[in-house]
């Protein structure tokens, strides 16, 4: 009966005409009943009056209840007029026309979900499967799937794109059309000054990785401008792989620390005990004397090898972007067209897409927790990211002239979320740089010219000093 209580045309609380007619009919029936009561024989006047009073009282009660209900002001009537109703404003709309099983369409799916979740109430996102609904292809004039169609808030088509479209490109296009969605959701974090000054003596800091130098693994390289000090043979080979000069006889400039004696000895004639730690990462100990090497081998295991074999092992795994020597245990795995390569750091791993021009998959680990992060690209853009919250640290340092440049591969990384990145920065007080999106890190690499890529991470004019 609820539909009888409100006028559908007025939208107010007035009595419905049907209900009013029912009340009039009820009053007429009651009046007729009263007349019949007075004409009945055998019932005392007192009893007749009592019955009539009871019925009249009931009718009156019903009328009073209805009157109260329809004269009581509603809660909305006490509200300011501008709060009575809130009209729903039209939103800009992104329509993705594709199919559930085509490969680029499947790559679009997580991007559409992210957009729908992140910009609820600001952007409408719709997916249409033309394999399930072929008529939609004709309706939207689709020639290729997936196709993304951009509509403004008035419903007018402003732009369409055929093929895969990355999240960053979608947001950039909306910004170009006058809708800056990304500007409201970016996470901004940086540290442009170390948490405290690096008070370590310079001769205790590795030239390559900025790590502490252990006296038992120190490697030195003589140059015409002084001595370069490195924390380990591995950091030496990283530097060696980046040199652009003629490296013939370069090993004559190199000295390693005898593990047993703690003294520097020429690198080329030395022996090396080569073993692995619990993570599979190589451990290298240098010896000037074979007997000391054999004694250590008996105590800790490993194989004794010469300089040339060590050189070959250290240089056999290289970064697919900058060609720097890497240990797989330290590197990001990169898949490109079914081939496997490595990235000496997370950013160089993305650079493999720029060097090869191929779509790649990068498997990297959170530098704080070791959790897996997977990035896939398509046509030089980020196609998918797992987890979607992953971010990048762009390590930077400030030159004496005030310009900011990359701090090098040892100071870059991926993290599953911004909180992990911030914790890692707190644990590394000398780190400076800023948080950027992984899509931005990829875009930075894709902007490099072939000449810049060829010079990437090479130590030429800035050779050891």
Describe the protein.
The protein is α+β, with helices and mostly antiparallel strands and 465 residues long. The chain has four domains: 12-70; 93-184, Glutaredoxin, CATH 3.40.30; 202-315, no CATH class; 321-455, 2-Layer Sandwich (Beta-Lactamase), CATH 3.30.450. Helices cover 32% and strands 23% of the residues. The chain has helices at 17-39, 45-71, 103-118, 134-140, 167-176, 233-242, 290-300, 307-315, 346-356, 418-427, 438-446, 450-455; strands at 93-98, 124-129, 147-151, 157-162, 190-191, 219-223, 226-230, 254-257, 264-266, 271-276, 282-287, 303-305, 332-336, 339-343, 360-365, 372-378, 381-386, 391-398, 404-406, 412-415, 433-436. Strands 5, 18, 19, 20 and 21 form a five-stranded antiparallel β-sheet that branches. A hairpin with a 2-residue loop joins β6 (219-223) and β7 (226-230). The longest helix has 27 residues, at 45-71.
Record the SSE blueprint:
Elements: H1 17-39, H2 45-71, E1 93-98, H3 103-118, E2 124-129, H4 134-140, E3 147-151, E4 157-162, H5 167-176, E5 190-191, E6 219-223, E7 226-230, H6 233-242, E8 254-257, E9 264-266, E10 271-276, E11 282-287, H7 290-300, E12 303-305, H8 307-315, E13 332-336, E14 339-343, H9 346-356, E15 360-365, E16 372-378, E17 381-386, E18 391-398, E19 404-406, E20 412-415, H10 418-427, E21 433-436, H11 438-446, H12 450-455
Parallel strand pairs: 1-2
Antiparallel strand pairs: 1-3, 3-4, 5-21, 6-7, 6-8, 8-9, 10-11, 10-12, 13-14, 13-15, 15-16, 16-17, 18-19, 18-20, 18-21
Helix pairs in contact: 1-2, 9-11
């Amino acid at each position: 009966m609820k539909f009888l209580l409100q006028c559908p045309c007025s939208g107010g609380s007035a009595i419905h005409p049907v209900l009013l007619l029912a009340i009039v009919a009820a009053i007429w029936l009651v009046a007729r009943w009263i007349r019949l009561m007075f004409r009945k024989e055998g019932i005392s006047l007192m009893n007749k009056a009592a019955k009539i009073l009871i019925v009249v009282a009931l009718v009156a009660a019903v009328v009073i209840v209805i009157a109260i209900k329809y004269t009581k002001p509603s809660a909305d009537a006490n509200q300011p007029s501008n709060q009575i109703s809130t009209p729903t404003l039209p939103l800009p709309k992104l329509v993705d026309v594709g199919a559930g099983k085509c490969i680029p369409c499947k790559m679009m799916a997580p991007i559409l979900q992210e957009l729908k979740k992140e910009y609820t109430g600001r952007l409408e996102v719709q997916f249409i499967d033309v394999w399930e609904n072929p008529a939609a292809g004709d309706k939207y004039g689709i020639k290729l799937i997936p196709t993304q169609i951009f509509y403004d808030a008035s419903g007018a088509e402003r732009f369409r794109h055929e093929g895969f479209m990355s999240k960053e490109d979608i947001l950039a296009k909306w910004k170009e059309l006058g809708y800056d969605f990304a500007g409201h959701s970016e996470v901004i974090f940086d540290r442009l000054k170390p948490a405290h000054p690096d008070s370590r003596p310079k001769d205790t800091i590795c030239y390559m990785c900025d790590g502490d130098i252990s006296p038992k693994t120190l490697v030195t390289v003589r140059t015409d401008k002084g001595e370069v000090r490195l924390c380990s043979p591995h950091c030496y080979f990283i530097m060696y792989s980046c040199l652009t000069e003629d490296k013939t006889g370069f090993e004559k400039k190199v000295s390693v620390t005898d593990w047993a004696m703690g003294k520097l000895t020429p690198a080329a004639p030395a022996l090396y005990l080569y073993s692995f730690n619990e993570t599979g990462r190589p451990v290298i100990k240098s010896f000037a004397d074979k007997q000391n090497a054999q004694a250590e081998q008996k105590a800790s295991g490993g194989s004794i090898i010469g300089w040339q074999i060590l050189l070959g092992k250290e240089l056999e795994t290289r970064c697919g972007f900058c060609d720097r020597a890497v240990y797989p245990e330290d590197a990001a795995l990169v898949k490109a067209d079914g081939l496997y390569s490595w990235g000496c750091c997370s950013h160089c791993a993305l650079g493999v897409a720029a060097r090869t021009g191929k779509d790649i998959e990068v498997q990297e680990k959170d530098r704080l927790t070791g959790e897996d992060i997977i990035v896939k690209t398509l046509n030089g853009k980020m196609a998918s990211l797992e987890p979607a919250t992953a971010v990048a640290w762009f390590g930077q340092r400030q030159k004496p002239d005030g310009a900011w440049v990359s701090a090098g591969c040892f100071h870059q990384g991926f993290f599953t979320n911004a909180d992990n990145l911030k914790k890692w920065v707190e644990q590394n007080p000398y780190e400076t740089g800023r948080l950027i999106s992984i899509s931005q890190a990829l875009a930075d690499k894709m902007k490099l010219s072939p000449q810049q890529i060829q010079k990437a991470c090479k130590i030429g004019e800035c050779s050891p000093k």
